[in-house]
Design goal:
The complex is a heterodimer of chains A (800) and B (276).
Chain A: E1 3-10, H1 14-25, E2 30-33, H2 41-44, E3 51-52, E4 70-71, H3 72-86, E5 90-91, E6 96-102, E7 105-110, E8 115-123, E9 130-131, E10 144-145, E11 158-162, H4 166-175, E12 180-184, H5 195-206, E13 210-213, E14 217-222, E15 225-230, E16 233-238, E17 241-244, E18 248-249, H6 252-257, E19 284-286, H7 296-310, H8 320-327, H9 336-346, H10 355-364, E20 366-368, E21 375-377, E22 386-391, E23 394-397, E24 406-409, E25 414-415, H11 417-422, E26 429-432, E27 437-441, H12 443-452, H13 454-472, H14 479-488, E28 490-494, E29 499-501, E30 510-515, E31 517-524, E32 527-535, E33 539-540, H15 542-546, E34 554-557, E35 561-566, H16 568-577, H17 579-601, H18 603-614, E36 623-627, H19 636-644, E37 658-659, E38 662-663, E39 685-687, E40 693-695, H20 704-708, E41 715-717, H21 726-732, H22 741-747, E42 757-759, H23 772-775, E43 782-785, H24 787-790, H25 793-798
Parallel strand pairs in A: 1-2, 1-8, 2-5, 8-19, 10-17, 11-12, 11-17, 12-13
Antiparallel strand pairs in A: 3-4, 6-7, 7-8, 9-18, 14-15, 15-16, 20-27, 21-26, 22-25, 22-27, 23-24, 23-26, 28-35, 29-34, 30-33, 30-35, 31-32, 31-34, 36-38, 36-43, 37-38, 39-40, 41-42
Helix pairs in contact in A: 1-3, 1-7, 4-5, 12-13, 14-16, 16-17
Chain B: H1 8-30, H2 42-64, H3 75-97, H4 105-138, H5 146-161, H6 166-178, H7 185-190, H8 197-211, H9 214-249, H10 251-274
Helix pairs in contact in B: 1-3, 2-3, 3-4, 4-9, 4-10, 5-6, 5-9, 6-8, 8-9
Classes of the chains: A alpha+beta (800), B mainly alpha (276).
Chain lengths: 800, 276
């Protein structure tokens, strides 16, 4: 007779195990199925000694299982102990192949043919799925492995890593330190990997640390030898070990076979769930990563909650007290559910989110209840958060010169998207027009939202388009003037280096840059000479239709760029309808004529622009440039940096390229869209009001930002050794004097294992008076500039 | 934008220095003391006090330079002021002396001051001239890790010389092991090494290459080219070191002389009041 349980839990990851724990505690008859012979396979497979984080920090843990940040071993050990002491019924080596039936009578079939019945089923299988195996003949050779626990275990071996994803690259790079490593890539580049990892592998290949095989497929394996099919035949590689990181077969197929529906074909989409984690199949619950909650703590909380829900206990989610606290700022004592419903009702942008997603979104958001006339943000602030109006309204002062030009936005509207898109300073000041209730959401939440809910991006773009036209062209533009342009305008993106249009092309429209920047170049004497740099907020391509000629220059994206493309005829209609804009366009055209004539005679200025753009200056908001004709190499800039930042300099004066005596030292450029922020697990990297990109003390030293920075300006540092005081230096000569940290740090290096955190230039955020490096330069060789200033022609002509 | 200390803030510190000089000269011309003009009149004390204040402020630069992240003024303000006020001392201090010189501690202080200003003037000249030359010498790429570059070229030389006669191999070995970069003060300042083993190897291999034929000649020609590249790089590195040495050397005079000046100045002031 088959066994019957109240709850069958599939998977023993953080959520499944936590559900099992709660079930055991509540004396619910239960069984946990685990495919392998140990708990929580995903975490089991982390690299040995890996430090596991307990994010989000604000979220309290609610589980029968313990969990704190710590090493993989400690965490797994505690889970094993607790599972044992609670008496959780775990069946190992039990892979579930099918789930059928309905609430009260589910049948769970295992790989070995056994079946178990249950009233309810909880799916906690995560997204890892089953690892893809090496399919070629001989793939079962003992030297083939699908994971790598500790790269330092191997030394002096020939190791082949198969795969081109992040896992393969991380393994290959780690192994290359003390082994002879080959990497086998089915394609001709590593496009699938994260930027940081791609840089790593490309550098390792360039330095001959790793030998690549491109366009190669494993054909067969014999003991100690791998045969590959390559473009021109076959290649044989002698190897002691093969590490195959071929990705996983996503569990979607299995999940669908259980009757669960996905909202779209998009492989990233997740099944829709009730607030109690119940899927469209009653009695079948989904928790953890598969439900869209990939963090360990969230998953553990859900495991606990789902058992309570099954028992019919309507407990509040674990984040309830946090949201309650957040909503305390609101007048009247409104319950959390009501406020959330109210937000969903009033803000259309958030309607497409599930309740779970919305709660998570709100946890990151800040509630504002400004009174009439309160400033929400000011023009030229560098903040890049996004605001939504739940109640009340706001006045946007769009014209710098005339505070009476106001756009009023009301309930359900949003603002702040222009800064978010462009990564630049705020383009307008916003005041509360009455007592209001607004949500402020940080850049990271918004990017996540845009990437996961399609409708959000579309809605945002529609509204942003009109506002960008007004902001960047003329605040005086009326709706009637804009309407014709909107009929055909579209957002067009260009990757770095791609051409918007070429010299000699026929006129096909005007491009308004809303993100990124471009260079304008002309062929002069058979060579492409850059004649201008145009940052976001300006337009290009108007010259051709204004002069009724072909394109007289080539425009190329200096960095990843987004433009609003407008049809020429419609653009003409718009400027005809607006005398202010007409005058402005005409003025700019004449300026461009003058500049371009001047550049003809001064191609070296163009070369400087070209050089700086190649150095990525185009995406900088503030960059340190050194004039080599003034620099006396005293290194006082580096010393000042070290002295004001705990003894470790964040800039390297000598490193970095030079052109026409302009030296770009290795120092942070405070990018418009900082690469370092892209993948920071504890969200420790922020942008301050004045534009400084800085790392706060929650850094865990994972090194993602260091890898993601294309300019190599972030370093991992265990901090400077303690330095004897000034007095003992003056009186007894002990320790280094002011500014002399370099040698001291080297001589008193901390041991290798000391914990490290990422450090980078913070533009002396907390020091009155600003950048210590620039202030400490005795000869005026070091300056900090924003690219708009530096690329301007007058500045360049001053350089002679 | 980048501005040198001479033109900094539209010559603000030049203007201040000039104003001080004009006032001092006018006062000196108008002032009609009893007997010869000297440091003991009211004007003499005023000018002396002014000079002492300026000297102490100038010397404070050494402290200010090492105080990072503080102060309202840029260090460039201090440097620009340092240059112009320092030069103005030549006139103001001379007026203070009333053109009376002798063999005594007072004139010693004056002489030391002139030496300090002289060394500073050379420093200013060096700061104005050598960074540009250094930048030109470096070219567009940074010299980067020069040791790695030189070592790479040496490796290439060995590689080629392996199949060549022993006489060549020995030269290549010398060029690798005996080539010196940097060295003592004079070597650094000269920017050359008359006994550079690499240059010698280049010259001699060149002579030998003319005699070789066949495969050896090919290899020797290749070797000459690599050696020539290495010598060129060495020349540039030595020039770079020379410029850096010129940028630094004057400080080894300027600062000890300043300390001596402060001492002499203290004695000068002390004795003046002691023998009042």
């Amino acid at each position: 007779m088959t066994e019957h349980y109240q709850v069958a839990i599939v998977g023993s990851g953080p959520c499944g195990m936590s559900a099992g724990g709660r079930a055991a505690e509540q004396k619910v008859s239960h069984i946990v199925f685990e495919r392998t012979d140990h708990l929580s396979d995903t975490i089991f497979k982390y690299q040995k000694g890996k430090h596991v984080m307990a994010t989000p920090d604000v979220l309290p843990l609610r589980s029968s299982m313990p969990f704190d940040a710590g090493t993989r071993e400690t965490i797994l050990g505690k889970w094993d102990d607790q599972t044992g002491s609670l008496g959780v019924n775990v069946r190992y080596n039990a892979e579930v192949t099918a789930i059928a039936g309905e609430k009260g009578n589910f049948t769970v079939t295992l790989k070995n043919g056994e079946t178990v019945t249950a009233d309810n089923v909880v799916l906690g299988i995560g997204l890892q799925g089953n690892l893809r195996q090496l399919a070629c003949p001989g793939g079962d050779w003992g030297g083939v492995q699908y994971q790598l626990d500790d790269p330092d275990e191997y030394e002096g071996e020939n190791i082949v890593v198969i795969g081109a994803g992040d896992a393969a690259i991380e393994n290959a790079v780690a192994l290359a330190k003390q082994n002879n490593v080959y990497i086998v890539n089915r394609r001709d580049e590593f496009a699938r990997a994260k930027d940081g990892n791609r840089n790593l592998i490309e550098a390792a290949i360039k330095n001959n640390d790793i030998t690549p095989y491109y366009n190669a497929d494993p054909k067969s394996v014999t003991s100690g030898k791998l045969t590959l099919t390559v473009a021109d035949g076959e290649a044989e590689v002698d190897c002691d070990r093969i590490i195959a990181r071929l990705g996983a077969i996503a569990p979607r197929k299995f999940v669908e076979s259980c009757g669960i529906e996905f909202p779209s074909k998009d492989p990233a989409s997740l099944p829709e769930l009730s607030p109690q984690y119940e899927s469209n199949v009653p009695g079948l619950y989904i928790v953890g990563a598969l439900a869209g909650f990939p963090l360990i703590k969230q998953a553990m909380n859900q495991g606990y909650e789902v058992i309570e829900f099954i028992l019919g206990n309507q407990i509040k989610p674990a984040d309830e007290p946090l949201l309650e606290e957040k909503f305390q700022a609101l007048p009247g004592d409104r319950p959390v559910d009501e406020v959330i419903a109210h937000i969903r009702e009033n803000v259309p942008l958030l309607r497409a989110l599930t309740t779970l997603q919305l709660r998570e979104f709100l946890l990151d958001a800040t509630i504002h209840v400004p009174s009439k006339g309160d400033v929400v943000f000011e023009r030229n602030d560098y903040t890049n958060s996004f605001f939504m109006i739940v109640e009340g309204s706001a006045d946007i002062l769009i014209d710098e010169k005339d505070p009476n030009v106001i756009v009023n936005v009301g309930v359900g509207d949003f603002f702040g998207e222009i800064g978010l898109i462009a990564g630049r300073r705020r383009s307008a000041t916003v005041l509360a027009a009455e007592a209001s209730f607004m949500l402020e959401s940080p850049r990271r939440s918004m990017i996540k939202l845009i990437n996961s809910v399609e409708a959000v991006e579309r809605t945002m773009n529609e509204v942003a388009l009109v506002r960008q036209l007004r902001t960047y062209l003329s605040p005086q533009l009326t709706d009637d003037a804009i309407r014709p342009v909107l009929e055909t305008a579209e957002v067009r993106g260009f990757k770095s280096g791609h051409v918007l249009f070429k010299e000699g092309d026929a006129d096909e429209g005007v491009y308004l840059l809303r993100k990124g920047s471009v260079t304008v170049s002309r062929r002069i004497g058979g060579k492409d000479i850059v004649i201008a740099y145009v940052p976001a907020g300006h337009y290009v391509g108007e010259m051709a239709f204004l002069t009724r000629a072909r394109r007289n220059a080539t425009v190329r994206a200096a960095i990843n760029t987004e433009t609003i493309w407008m049809e020429s005829d419609k653009f003409r209609q718009m400027i005809d309808a607006s005398p202010e804009l007409r005058g402005e366009v005409e003025r700019r055209l004449l300026t461009r004529f003058i500049e371009s004539e001047s550049m003809h005679t001064r191609p070296e200025a163009g070369n400087i622009i070209q050089f700086l753009v190649e150095q990525g200056v185009g995406e900088a908001t503030d960059i340190l440039l050194i004039d080599e004709t003034l620099c006396v190499a005293c290194d006082n800039c580096e010393k000042a940096c070290a002295e004001t930042h705990g003894g470790v300099s964040r800039l390297n004066r000598e490193a970095g390229p030079t052109f026409a005596s302009i030296h770009v030292p290795t120092s942070c450029r405070h990018c418009e869209h900082p690469h370092c922020m892209a993948d920071c697990p504890p969200d420790a990297i922020h942008r301050a009001v004045d534009g400084e990109v800085y790392i706060d003390e929650s850094c865990i030293g994972c090194g993602n930002c260091e890898r993601n920075c294309p300019y190599g300006v972030i370093q991992l540092s265990s901090g400077a050794p303690k330095k004897p005081g000034l007095f003992s230096w003056m009186m007894f000569g002990i320790g280094p004097g002011p500014g002399e940290n370099k040698g001291w740090n080297k001589a008193h290096k901390k041991e290798d294992g000391a914990p490290k955190v990422a450090v980078k230039c913070d533009m002396c955020l907390n020091i009155a008076g600003g950048s210590a490096c620039v202030r400490a330069c005795p000869t005026g060789a070091a300056i900090r500039v924003s690219p708009e200033d530096f690329f301007s022609l007058s500045e360049l002509s001053a350089r002679r | 934008m980048h501005t040198s200390i001479l033109v900094f803030r539209n010559f603000r510190y030049l203007k201040i220095a000039l104003a001080l000089i004009v006032v001092a000269v006018l006062a000196y011309v108008i002032h009609d003391p009893l007997g010869r003009p000297n440091g003991g009149t009211w004007l003499g004390y005023s000018l002396g006090g002014l000079c002492a204040a300026i000297i102490v402020w100038l010397a404070w630069f050494g402290v200010r330079k090492r105080r990072y992240g503080v102060g309202k003024l840029l260090l460039e303000d201090w440097a620009s002021g340092h240059v112009y006020l320092g030069l103005s001392l030549l006139i103001i201090a001379t007026l203070h002396s009333g053109f009376q010189f002798g063999i005594n501690v007072h004139t010693l202080a004056y002489a030391l001051m002139v030496l300090v200003i002289g060394s500073g003037a050379f420093g200013l000249y060096a700061y104005m001239r050598y960074p540009r030359l250094r930048s030109i010498n470096r070219g567009e790429g940074a010299l980067g890790d020069v040791w790695a570059l030189v070592a790479g070229m040496s490796r290439d030389c060995y590689e080629i010389a392996r199949d060549l006669p022993d006489e060549v191999y020995r030269l290549v070995e010398d060029a690798d092991k005996e080539t010196r970069i940097g060295g003592g003060v004079w070597r650094q300042l000269s920017g050359r090494d008359p006994n550079c083993a690499s240059t010698r190897a280049l010259e001699e291999v060149r002579g030998m290459a003319e005699r070789y034929s066949g495969k050896d000649a090919d290899a020797a020609r290749r070797l000459v080219r690599v050696l020539a590249r290495k010598v060129e790089l060495l020349t540039r590195i030595r020039k770079d070191i020379q410029y850096k040495a010129l940028l630094d050397i004057w400080l080894y005079f300027h600062i000890p002389l300043t300390v001596a000046l402060l001492g002499a100045l203290a004695i000068h002031i002390f004795t003046v009041f002691l023998y009042w």
